[in-house]
Structure formats: C-alpha cells, structure tokens
Design brief:
205 residues, alpha+beta, 2 domains, 15% strand, globular, GrpB/CoaE, Dephospho-CoA kinase/protein folding accessory domain-containing protein
C-alpha cells in the first residue's frame, strides 16, 4: 500500500516518528476540562454533510488564512462507529500567530481549549453545537499527515475498522475524560499505525 496522497521521502520519515511534547507544558488554556460522558455511536451518514457545512463557515471566516481544511478522525470513515464529534484539521502558516485566527473562530462560537507549542504547535478549539474539535497545525505537520493516513487506512481495511470499533467501545467503559478514553485505545491505535508504516516502507522499496 502506498499513501493515498503523495508523500515526499522526508514526509514519510517524519510521519513514522512519534514526537512527544514537553511533559511540563500546561496545555490547558482555561483550566482542565470537566468530566464528560464518553459516547460511541453507530456511524451517522449526516456527518460528512455537517463537515461540509462547517468547512464553508470556516472558509468564510478565515479567508486565505486557512491553507487547508480537512475532515479527519472517526466521523470521516464511513461505517465506523464514533463519538458524535466532528474532527477537523485546520492548517495555517503559523499556529503561533493566534491573533490571526483565534478571534474569527471565537466569533463563530469556538472556544480555545488547548495550546501545545511543544507538540507540532497544536491548538485545539471546540464548538458545542454542532460538536466539533478543530485541530490547528502548520501546513505539512506530520501529525496532520498521520491523521490522513489513519483515516484512509481504515476506509480501505474493514478488518482494522472493526478492530478499532471494538477498541473504542472497550475504551469508553468506566471513564469520564477524553484523556482516559484516548489512553485506553492507544495500544490499538499504535498497532494499526505499525501496519501503515510497514506498508509505507514496502512501497518505498
């Protein structure tokens, strides 16, 4: 399997290396999040349309500041059960230039919740209605490329799609924070990434 989109040799190497952020960095912009119910529901065919509608709103609000807007995460994979939250990657020239994109996003109702300069300059903004997690990265970010690879792999490999669903349903049991939910399914995520990376290496040979 080659990537479903072109990768340079440098990008291929970068996506296969997971970087850790600064463990002493406080990512919470307005304090740690409240406990919440973690729900995993059957695939909703309305999710792509919700993304398309939000993409149009983001493009109008951000103009040329938005270099790329893409539907990622489980709601971007047909037939995959997911939390009913649309994940969107927004690529900008410089995520550190928050003054250029945070105010127009705030005007749309987004709340800036996470700032992680040490981890791919990641920012996260959340919208309550509809529920959206907006991830901000720089163009070419390895984490954004991994999001695309993971999504496309699950679309093309139904056996791993079912395996991931089972992992998600187990992961939500007995937890009430997103961090715990993500931690519980991390082993399965890394195992699927190992398959993706092996396929990338084979395609480069």
């Amino acid at each position: 399997m080659s990537a479903s989109f072109p990768l340079t040799a440098a990008e291929r190497e970068a996506v296969m290396t997971f970087a850790d952020g600064d463990p002493d960095e406080n990512p919470w912009v307005a304090g740690k999040p409240q406990q919440e119910e973690i729900d995993v529901v059957d695939y909703d065919p309305r999710w792509p349309q919700r993304f398309a509608q939000e993409k149009a709103r983001l493009e109008r609000a951000l103009g040329p500041y938005a270099l790329h807007i893409e539907h990622v995460g489980s709601t971007a994979v047909p037939a995959l059960a997911a939390k009913p939250i649309i994940d969107i990657d927004l690529l900008v020239a410089d995520p550190a230039d928050e003054a250029g994109y945070i105010p127009p996003l705030t005007a749309l109702g987004y709340v800036h919740t996470i700032r992680e300069p040490s981890w791919y300059q990641h920012r996260l903004l959340r919208l309550d209605a509809p529920q959206i997690n907006l991830h901000v990265f720089a163009a070419g970010s390895p984490e954004h490329l991994r999001h695309r690879l993971f999504r496309d792999w699950l679309i093309a490999h139904p056996e791993d799609r079912q395996r991931y669903v089972a992992s998600k349903r187990r992961a939500r049991q007995g937890v009430n924070t997103m961090a715990d939910y993500n931690r519980n399914k991390q082993e399965t995520v890394r195992q699927i990434y190992a398959k993706i990376f092996a396929a990338l290496r084979n395609s480069a040979d």
